[in-house]
Each structure stands twice: as structure tokens, then as C-alpha cells.
């Protein structure tokens, strides 16, 4: 008996020209801002989900002629002032490629597609007059047809995250998205399900496979976690203003706020980088080879060569789950964001033993500042003394520094071993948090003596789900799931 044909995943081609990261409305969604892709015209309806040990991350694409005003439909809950490091700069017309298509105008007969999944199965017509949904992949990739079809709307790549312990909420969200898309497209839910697929990655893609398949009643496809991470990295680093780094002065001011300029700083990585600022890569190009340090519940360190081939070369079990778990035991905080808020108000010098506590000054011979941590939690235990009480804020700052410094040093050692200068940090551990970014940046700059740079991503927690979204299912020759 012959083995049934199972379709293999292929990489879809996403037109990133003119891509814009949408403004945020709440600090809670700073890692979930949508990306508007005005020139992406191919029909796509699959939903990607990356299920890790702590968080499940969802990525999906919806059509819209104009960028929506919020990062996503469900993620925006109230508004507040956006943080300086997570608000994108406004793109001027001069920033757009000279060969970019004209501005978008939406035909009235395509308004039903706005804000919804758009499966190819919903429209079998093959003429331009009936919309892009009926065009097959071969036609869509034809250059002449692309030029003809420029007036059709692009859409937004949307991002959501859920705690894995509440995976039912994730399933419910996807179910509501499918139902809403069926209603907007004017078809039955049964017809909608025929064109929707779930591309799942991460450990939970195996653990919760049956749950997604039975509850959603759509095709579910499991994709390799590491492959998705690298595909996501290659894609997201081509989005303008996605990758960023801290200037040396900003690293110093965040990591050591008690020190006032002018102070000695590390050797600068370029002749004239901006001071006290976040620097965005506004005109991105592929940046390979590199090292990817993905910080989730644990940490994976992946070496990527100039051709995009990759190898997991190291890692550590001391990651976001470690910080989350210990702070759950030691503080009243119950969410990761609450823990980050506590750390922002903390003073780790009440808990940590510093170089100055031991030497009374800098240890200049070894290049150690008096403010450098010599022993994490070193002041907590005093032999023969009374047990002291430490504030949740100070404990949070100390543990944040401990985990971040450990990851930074391991990342540096691997970058040095493989002679890689660019080190990307990803994963939901970072969450755009200034102290975390400064600590990782400082560790890389200190140990490498300024020869290597730590780079960060505004959608750092979604690399795996983005990579899974990019991997579509090729149905040539048959159908099925794995």
C-alpha cells in the first residue's frame, strides 16, 4: 500500500516594500504592534501559532486598504503614553523606495475583504475584475500582473500572545477570528474552515495538536521550531525600524543611573553614533551571518551562516521562566509585566554585593567599576546576623540583572567562538524593557571590548510564529496534515 501524499511547507514571498510598524496604544502591547504591508497582494488565510512553555504567540494577516489605528483588534485595551523606545518614527515620502507603486485605492467590490482572513477557496474567479482571491500563485508572481494589480489593497500582519496555561483562550480567539472572517466575507463557517489552516510550531504544537484540530476543525500543520525561528528572523530584519540598538551612553545611563556624564564609556562601535538614544535600522538589508539568542522560558543560541543555514550551538535553562518562577516565589507580582514594573523601581545594590563593597573603590587593574556586581544576592546572607527583609522592587532588579547578565555572557562567548559580530536577541523575555536591553547590551560591549553589538527586535517574541506564518502549505499533488 503506497504512503499517502502529504504536502510540504513552502516559503511564501512577502513584499515588504513600504512596510510600516503601527503605533501602539498601550505599553502592554509594545511587542504586539501590527505591521502594515501595503504591497503584499497574495491571498493568504493561514494562522500561525508558536506555543512555548510560558506563552503562545499568534500571527495572522488581514486585508485593509489603510493601516488600522491600533496594533490589533483584540490586543488594545485602553490607551496610555507610548514608551520612547517603542514608538516608531514617522516615515517620510523620501524613505520609500523609488520604484514603489503608487498610493493604494480600494475598489468598492473588495471592501468585504477589509480586516478579515481571505482564503483563496472563497473566490474561484480568475479575472481581475472579481478580485485577487481567484488568482493562482503562478499568475500572482508574474511581474506584469503585479504592476496591473497595484491598486488592490495590502493589509496588516497582526500579533497576539496568550499565557500557555490559558491555551483555551488562544483557541477561542482563533475561533472568533475565523467566525468573524466568515461573516465579513459573507460565507458559512463551514466554507471558511475549508480555506483556513493552522501552522503550529514550538513544543506546544505537539502537546496541543489534537486540541487545535478538534476545537477549530481546520487543517493543522506542525513546523520545526528552529526553522521557523530563522525564517522569522530573516523576514523581520527586512522591516524598516524593526531592529534597533542602544547607544553606549544610553546603556550607561540606564544600567548605572547613579553615574552622571561625562563618565568613561566603552569604545564606540562607529565614528559618530547618536548619544543617549535608541538607533533604528531604517534601511535594513540582510545581516548574515549572525548569532540569534532566543530567550523564552529557557534560552537557545543559534548560529546562522551567510546562506541562512543554522545550528543550535548552545543554550541555558536559566531564562525567562527562571526569572518568572523565582519572582513568583519571592514577590507579590503575578505577571511578567508586574515583575518588570517592580524592577524599574528597585535598587539592586541593597541586595547585591558590589565591587565597591569589597574594595571600597574601583578595581582598576582588572577594569572593574565599583558599581559592578561582584555577587548576586551577596548581601542577603550575613553570618550570625539577623535576617533582613528586602523589598520586592530590589529583589526584582537583582534577579533581572542576574539572569540578563548570565545570558549576555554566554551569548558573547558563543559569538567570540564563531567570530560573529552581530548578536540578535529575541524572545518574550525582553518585552522592550529598557533595563533588560541595557544589561544585555552592556554585557556584550564589556566582554567584547566594543567589537560586538547587541541588536534587538520590536517583535522579539514572535520570531517563531512569524516564521511559521511565512511557511505556507503546498497542495500540489494532494492534501493532508501531519
From TrEMBL:
Keyword Nucleotide-binding: yes
Gene Ontology cellular-component terms listed: cytosol; nucleus
GO BP terms, alphabetized: coenzyme A biosynthetic process
Record keywords: ATP-binding, Coenzyme A biosynthesis, Nucleotide-binding
Polar residues bias locations: 77-112
SUPFAM superfamilies from the UniProt entry: Actin-like ATPase domain
GO molecular function: ATP binding; pantothenate kinase activity
Region feature Disordered, mapped onto this chain: 65-112, 261-280
UniProt-listed InterPro entries: ATPase_NBD, Type_II_PanK
Domain of life: Eukaryota
Keyword Nucleotide-binding: yes
Xref: PANTHER family: 4'-PHOSPHOPANTETHEINE PHOSPHATASE (PTHR12280:SF20), PANTOTHENATE KINASE (PTHR12280)
Protein name: Pantothenate kinase
Lineage: Eukaryota, Fungi, Dikarya, Basidiomycota, Agaricomycotina
